[in-house]
Amino acid sequence: MIQIKDLHKSYQMGSNSLHVLKGIDFNVKEGELVSIMGSSGSGKSTLLNILGMLDEADLGSYTLDNVSIKNLNEKVAAQYRNKFLGFIFQSFNLINYKNALDNVSMPLYYQGIKRKERTDKALHYLEKVGLADWATHLPSELSGGQKQRVAIARALASDPKVLLADEPTGALDTKTSYEVMELIQGINEEGKTILVVTHEPDIAEMTKRIVNLKDGRIIDDRPVNQILAKAHV
Length: 233
Ligand code: ADP
Ligand code: MG
What we know:
Blueprint: E1 2-13, E2 16-28, E3 33-37, H1 44-51, E4 59-64, E5 67-68, H2 74-84, E6 85-89, H3 100-109, H4 115-128, H5 144-157, E7 162-166, H6 174-189, E8 193-198, H7 201-204, E9 209-214, E10 217-223, H8 224-231
Parallel strand pairs: 3-8, 3-9, 6-7, 7-8
Antiparallel strand pairs: 1-2, 1-4, 4-5, 9-10
Adenosine-5'-diphosphate binds at residues 11, 13, 18, 20, 38, 40-46.
């Protein structure tokens, strides 16, 4: 599903250049649930933003569902982004003056889907995240965990190939974090390919594979069951 090879990214700041990704190689197969773990500043969000086509690498190659992502014009990039990718953020990024249903259905509007189908789909996905009874509520009337569930329903609504989540539990308490990760696990079990960025080992351990990033390089990339087995020796 995802193949990246020798990815490099630097940020220019005045006359200085900050080399953030220093040659990243990895592949993600369809149906995987992978976490990208590393301390703050290690380059996780930079990598996820490139995978999400929100930013571009300076060097290296990226293939998403057999499409080479390089030098696409903004219109084509936006089409691929809508078709292939769903995003979940730490801060939920819901629209405050729209209710849960409208938050979920709005991206479908921009894909030209008719009102009835938009509403049906949005209700279906709200139900899937356990919020069918909250459809008409505003984000301000929802708890943090419920807001993230709405955001997850929104990300799912267009049935993307890959879900990208950047610190999805970063704003949630421990118990709610585990509940949101259990929801993500369930979505993965239905076949969705999911990447979760986190700096928390406990959260990473709820995925199936941990890619450990340090100073812009992958220092470890293993299935979780191997890591846990070793930890208990
Ligand atoms: P992480 O998500 O692992 O905390 P980031 O990918 O956000 O790390 O950031 C990696 C490094 O790049 C940090 O030192 C950060 O300050 C820097 N950085 C991130 N985005 C930008 C930007 N737009 N311009 C300049 N520096 C940036
Ligand atoms: Mg980050």
